[in-house]
Design brief:
mainly alpha
């Protein structure tokens, strides 16, 4: 049995007039908007898991618990007035220097490459990631002050707030340097950790965070004078004590802004050359 199928092609199909669409120009996203979007992305893990900030406080709290009882009493008051500002500066240093560790994981997983080809400016990627350090700095300082205030620590709220402001550029700049180091190390994370651990402890010791450097030999004093963290620690100790010596605070601000400016400059250049 044969089946024949015929199609009538005689009639023309009705034509539908095409709609004219007016092209809409896309609005360029500004630099500030890009930075804000990157900052929000970087803060999501902190906001979702605020306990991570507490875990990062283990080492500073151990230092407070083990070192503070060994310090001699100061004639000006409790030894905590001298020791706590150094611990706050140390916490800022440790937290900011670990920023590149998260980027190393992104590089290894391949997610960093997807960020590089996104329409977000590369400078915004670096600045937004570095600005993230402001939030842990504030939270960790609040936790440290809250812990030590019941133990013979005189709280001067104004000095503490100014001290946080002094540390912000330093934390952002150091975070940018840490990110630049992670980009330079690429998938070899051991390079990042080797350089980070090699640099961080001399900076702590030469800043007089744990021990005073008053009786140190001349070469050690010279090395300490070249350490920007020393001027921040001096400013923090004056501010946490409730005093506002202009020269010490200006030196602290200057050292903080120098680290912030150099760190962001080096970080943005490294991000622009990343591949």
């Amino acid at each position: 049995m044969t089946i024949e199928m015929t199609t009538d092609l005689g009639g023309a199909a009705p034509t539908v007039p095409a709609r004219r669409r007016t092209p809409v120009a896309a609005r360029p996203v500004g630099l500030a908007a890009d930075i804000w979007n990157v900052l929000l992305r970087e803060l999501q893990p902190v906001l979702r898991q605020p306990a991570s900030v507490l875990f990062a406080m283990v080492q500073p709290l151990v230092f407070l618990g083990l070192f503070a009882p060994l310090l001699p009493e100061s004639p000006d008051g409790s030894a905590l007035q001298w020791f706590v500002p150094g611990i706050v500066a140390m916490t800022a240093l440790m937290s900011a220097s670990f920023t590149g560790a998260n980027l190393s994981e992104e590089i290894i997983s391949g997610s960093f490459e997807r960020l590089l080809v996104s329409p977000v400016r590369r400078s915004s990627l670096m600045i937004g990631k570095a600005l993230r350090e402001m939030v842990p700095l504030v939270l960790q300082t609040v936790i440290i002050v809250a812990v030590v205030t019941p133990f013979a620590f005189d709280l001067h709220l104004g000095g503490v707030l100014v001290g946080i402001v002094v540390l912000v550029p330093f934390s952002v700049g150091l975070g940018a340097l840490s990110l630049a180091l992670a980009i330079a190390a690429k998938e070899q994370a051991w390079i990042f950790w080797t350089v980070q651990q090699t640099v961080i402890f001399p900076l702590l010791l030469l800043a007089g965070v744990l021990l005073p450097l008053d009786g140190a030999p001349g070469w050690l004093q010279t090395a300490s004078d070249l350490n920007p963290l020393k001027y921040l620690v001096d400013a923090e100790r004056a501010l946490f004590a409730g005093s506002f010596p202009v020269d010490t605070i200006v030196s602290g601000f200057a050292a903080s802004f120098v680290v912030g400016a150099l760190g962001l400059w080096a970080g943005v250049r490294t991000m622009d050359r990343a591949s």
